[in-house]
Amino acid sequence: MSPITVYTTDHCARCVAAKMLLARRGLGFEEINLAKDPDGRAALLARTGMVTFPQVLIGERVIGGFDELREADREGRLSDLAA
Asked: What is the DSSP letter of 30?
């Protein structure tokens, strides 16, 4: 199974929703909270081209934010991506 990484920040409803969706699907993930980490935010931008939260990666593949994660789940692609 490819590792799932969720970049989050504090007080982010979409971050909570993304983590809940992954948990409901039984998919473990590593959460990296960048609320107080400007260097981490710069690294996230370099890695994904995005600085909005959440940002979800499966392996090295950038899935995107909550909307993209939810779309992958609805289309049945999430479990395939995580395999």
From this structure: E
CATH of the domain at 24: 3.40.30.10
Residue labelled with tokens 């909005």:
52
Mean pLDDT over 62-74 rounds to 96
CB atoms inside a 10 Å sphere around CB 7: 27
**pTM given for the model:** 0.92
- Give the domain range for residue 63: 4-82
Q: How many domains does one find in the chain?
A: 1
| Cα-based distances in Å from 18 to 12, 23, 39, 59, 68 | 10, 9, 23, 16, 10
- CA of 83: how far to CAs of 17, 20, 23, 75, in Å? 21, 19, 15, 15
pLDDT for 4: 95
pLDDT value of residue 65: 96
